[in-house]
Amino acid sequence: MISRSGSFTTNRFRTLLDRMVQSARLNSTNFLSLKEDPTATGQALVVLALAGTSFGIGFTVSVGVRGQWLLLGAGLGAVIGIVLGFVWTSLTFLIGTKVFHATSDYWSLARPMFFASSPGLVFLLMSIPASFVTDVARAVGVAWIAISTVIAVRTALDIDNQRSLLTFILVTLIVLISYGLVTSLLPI
Into how many domains does the chain fold? Predict the structure, then answer.
């Protein structure tokens, strides 16, 4: 006999999976419904953590590390994924609302953007021990997430394609420059 809570949990899991698939399919209607559904915030955080974990596992295995280090790679990937997700969303929110005068609250943008990382599960393919597969999986994952993010931003901020793409490019440049500055300050 399945309890009510078990059925409820199963339905929530199916909803999560359906939203992830629709996000990976670049479905604008899905991003719009995520924008308008404050109950999807927890699921959005889970998706962000799953994408980061997938990258952490894929990267750890691709560099030849096994055992308990795989767990560390997965955990670090999740944490870095969540932190990067919040940084990326915050910068996108600032540029979208201040530069392009879009109207949105933070979480209405964050939910679709976090779900835009759904294609990040492809990073698990980096675990396949063939260097070309690792490279292809990483490139496909990054490109797919980038396209998904542009569509999520366009939908969540209700701006046109050009402004959405320009927002993505500006955030990418800010993150890359910041990363370069921080790493140049660290002792080798």
Answer: 1
Question: Integer distance in angstroms from the first to the last C-alpha of the chain?
Answer: 59
Identify whether the C-beta of residue 153 lies closer than 8 Å to the C-beta of residue 96: yes
Predicted local confidence at residue 4, as pLDDT: 46
Q: Tokens for 120?
A: 């990040």
Kindly state the greatest CA–CA separation across the chain. 60
Burial class (CB in 10 A: 0-12, 13-18, 19+), 53: buried
The CA-based angle 119-123-127, given to 5 degrees, is: 155
Q: Which tens digit of pLDDT belongs to each residue from 131-149?
A: 889 999 999 999 999 999 9
pLDDT tens for each residue of 47-84: 999 999 999 999 999 888 878 888 999 999 999 999 99
Give me the domain span that covers residue 118: 15-180
The token pair that represents 38 in the structure block: 């404050």
Q: What are phi and psi of 137, to 5 degrees?
A: -60, -45
* Tokens encoding 182: 């921080």
pLDDT tens track for 145-155:
999 999 999 99
Contact 126, 137 (CB under 8 A): yes
CA 61 to chain centre: 21
